[in-house]
Amino acid sequence: MPRNSNADTRIYVLDTNILLHEPLAFLSFKENDVVVPMTVLEELDYIKDSKKDVARDARVCIRAMEDLLSDATPDEMLAGVSLSGLGAGENRPTGTLSIYADLNMAESQQIFASDENDNRIINVALHLQTVFASQQVVLVTKDINMRLKAKGAGLAHVEDYRTDQLISDIKYLTKGYHQFEGDFWQRVKSVDSRSEGRDTIHTVPRSLLPEAYVNEFLLDDSKQFAGIVESMTSDEMDILDLGFDRLMSRTAWGITPKNIGQAMALHSLLDPHIDLVILTGPAGSGKTLLALAAALEMVVERNMYDKIIVTRNTPEIAESIGFLPGTEEEKMAPWLAAITDSLEVLHKHDENTKGSMSYIMEKANIQFKSVNFMRGRSIQNAIVILDESQNLTASQLKTIITRCGEGTKLICSGNLAQIDSNYLSAVTSGLTYLVEKFKDFSGSATINLDGVVRSRLADFAENHM
């Protein structure tokens, strides 16, 4: 049982999915007390020995709790062990961690009589709410249905895990560009322009856009000015003049942009100084096609990289790559049909489309890989295309990003309106976390593609369904 402290502190009961989402989540509740039901430990024990990708997170969590509780007596584990001095940063926890032996709960204390794990965890929260009436007892879970069941059973406070949530609403997500109303130059009171080779760079006051960041695009309504923030100081920022028409005329592997969003995306994709490009937007906005066209351009035409590695989250085959005959590429092919579809579009006018596709896949050394087998690798001088990344958590994305070695460019694309994960939403997706965390990194660029260009049918469906 947690300590019976003053009403200013809360008691947080953690569900299993919280500790799988963030293994050290029990350190994130500051001065409040954290309760982990025995049922949660049982679920972690079952998952840690599985072949699922989350098994590693389960083991990390178990080890961390064991380090904390190893010297505690059984009574101390139930009463609560201090978290003081653990964690990192300024907001180190000062509360306690306790294990609740819910397997021994009397039937009179149980609201749910069925022996399902979710019900047993809810029973713990409801019992603590009764015992510690002066304190606020909060059940923390990413399972939406479990939150509804808990509230329906009488639990007053139920929350999602929001410590790693950087924005409160998806409408506040960084778009990667800022559009000025009217003419850009009418807003500029002072400017110092210079030429560097074929480029023109304008130095303007930082007050023009105080919240600007490096590699953010600047546009105006007149469709005359288009630039990108190259660098900045506390007082000034340098803007590379791209020119609206010149930006729209960029090409890669025979593809030209259909709107300004695609033009900005293509510029970032082809820029060798940008190591990470994040493309967000609705289905049919051209994310995958642009990524593949730029990758082929840089690998085959410009010889800037050695190969193209394509991967995506595959939850149904996350436990293993399968025992059916075939190579890893052949087994991954159905999951990466978007890539082969895009490749077919790029070569649809060739006399022999299939022959061209086979030749280019060999020439560009295109490899289809499972996310499950990316851990432990060190990828050098390659372009990595991570498709459908909205279904990945922040820790999963970190695993992939840290695989990228010297000379590797990572392209992450995803549609935050099409999340298939049971425990992720648009604001808690790893893709959202990535956009916000890397917006101040000078080696990354984010572009939100607005508008469906696939077909008028797809456009109507996106806007009216």
Characterization of the model:
This protein has 465 residues and is of the alpha/beta class. Helices cover 31% and strands 20% of the residues. The protein has 15 helices and 18 strands. It has helices spanning 16-21, 38-48, 55-69, 74-79, 117-131, 144-152, 244-248, 260-270, 287-301, 328-332, 337-346, 353-363, 394-401, 430-438, 456-464, and strands at residues 10-14, 33-37, 81-82, 96-100, 136-140, 157-159, 177-180, 192-196, 199-205, 217-220, 226-232, 236-241, 276-280, 307-312, 366-370, 382-387, 409-414, 444-448. The strands form 3 sheets. A 6-stranded mixed beta sheet has the order 3-4-2-1-5-6. Mean pLDDT is 86; it is low at 316-320. Keywords: ATP-binding, Nucleotide-binding. Belongs to the PhoH family. In the N-terminal section; belongs to the PINc/VapC protein family. This is PhoH family protein. Residues 10-148 form the PIN domain. It comes from Alteromonas gilva.
How is the topology of this model organized?
Layout: E1 10-14, H1 16-21, E2 33-37, H2 38-48, H3 55-69, H4 74-79, E3 81-82, E4 96-100, H5 117-131, E5 136-140, H6 144-152, E6 157-159, E7 177-180, E8 192-196, E9 199-205, E10 217-220, E11 226-232, E12 236-241, H7 244-248, H8 260-270, E13 276-280, H9 287-301, E14 307-312, H10 328-332, H11 337-346, H12 353-363, E15 366-370, E16 382-387, H13 394-401, E17 409-414, H14 430-438, E18 444-448, H15 456-464
